[in-house]
Amino acid sequence: MKFYTSPRAPSPRRVSIFLAEKGITGLEEITVSIAANAHKDEAFLAKNPLAKVPALELDDGRILTETRAICTYLEGMYPEINLMGVDATERAFIEMADRRIELYLFSGFANCIRHTHPGFVAIEQPQFPDFGASQGEKVREVARWLDSELAHRPFVAGERFTIADITTFCALEFGRGLMKFVPGNEGMPHLQAYRDSWVLRASAKVL
Asked: Rounded to two decimals, what is the model's pTM?
């Protein structure tokens, strides 16, 4: 299989950490530089016409895109270590947690950054700074909610580490890097402690 990724981009990083946590090796890794607009090259557009990374090319030539779909496939192919649930009930609650983080925290950071950060001027056209600023405020509301949830449990989806924690970490690191979002500086001690414990994991070093 071929894994199309882009260094430091948060969505491909989610898959890279997922691979690391499960101990999956042997994929051919192909770098697609977003900074160099390689995701819009004709060769990559033939793989994914939506010009998004990551993408996973299966051995039969079919292409999987979208982070969650790629991880679902890999979970099925490599069921251990389980990160997406062992039965219908656990799978549903893990997916709910993961989707909440993806839709409300991850996307909130992304919208704020893409519409306010000068480094995204060439990528996000047109930028809408007022929209970006409002997203920055709204994503902090979600972060405060998550802080309160983590006061009562060690992981985002419950009592064990799951894919929802990978999504959360990548979202927080995206916000930390380009929004200078530090939960502890904004009255979110539980979210800060969660992030600080996360960086001790070996997979946190995967970019």
From this structure: 0.94
